[in-house]
Amino acid sequence: MPKVTTNNLNETKVLAKEIVNKLGLAAKGATILALFGDLGAGKTSFTQGVAEALGIAETISSPTFVIEKIYDLQNQSFHKLIHIDAYRLESGSDLLKLGFMDILADETNLIILEWTENVLEILPPTINKINFKFVDENTREINYEI
Ligand code: ADP
Ligand code: MG
């Protein structure tokens, strides 16, 4: 599993761009970037890098209270970026209540999920796992399987 140490926010965004450029549409179903790691570990910052790589102009913030935000993409193989923050969810069944199965059925969706730990049991085995670890104020260790 590749392990990268980033020394500032921008390096985390650059890694996000590299990872998003490696993704292609799956034959069946949405593509999921499943982010793991504590508060402040860099999950939303990484998501901002993904959004920039996909040409999203608006600022991405953590959808902690709304749970889910959907961004339409222009001139991309994925048609939508769906940013989900499972921080306030207790289990995967909470995600199912939000219509997750419909989102999952569409291969043109790219789903980026924060707090994967909370909903892991309902996710398909094909998720792309990305682990964030806080090392010190500006340093993060990021492990991923893409
Ligand atoms: P999370 O979504 O995991 O709670 P955020 O991305 O919202 O985390 O917050 C990460 C914070 O850490 C931001 O304030 C960011 O500027 C800061 N930071 C410092 N160094 C890094 C780094 N190497 N990678 C990502 N974020 C960093
Ligand atoms: Mg966050």
TrEMBL record:
Cytoplasm among keywords: yes
Keywords tagged on the record: ATP-binding, Cytoplasm, Magnesium, Metal-binding, Nucleotide-binding, Transferase, tRNA processing
Location in or out of the cell: Cytoplasm
GO molecular function ontology, one term from the record: metal ion binding
Superkingdom per UniProt: Bacteria
SUPFAM superfamilies: P-loop containing nucleoside triphosphate hydrolases (SSF52540)
Listed Gene3D superfamilies: P-loop containing nucleotide triphosphate hydrolases
Lineage: Bacteria, Candidatus Vogeliibacteriota
Name of this protein: tRNA threonylcarbamoyladenosine biosynthesis protein TsaE
Entries under InterPro entries matching the protein: P-loop_NTPase (IPR027417), T6A_TsaE (IPR003442)
Pfam families per record: TsaE (PF02367)
GO BP: any one term: tRNA threonylcarbamoyladenosine modification
Gene Ontology CC annotation, any one: cytoplasm
Family, similarity comment: Belongs to the TsaE family.
Xref: NCBIfam families: T6A_YjeE
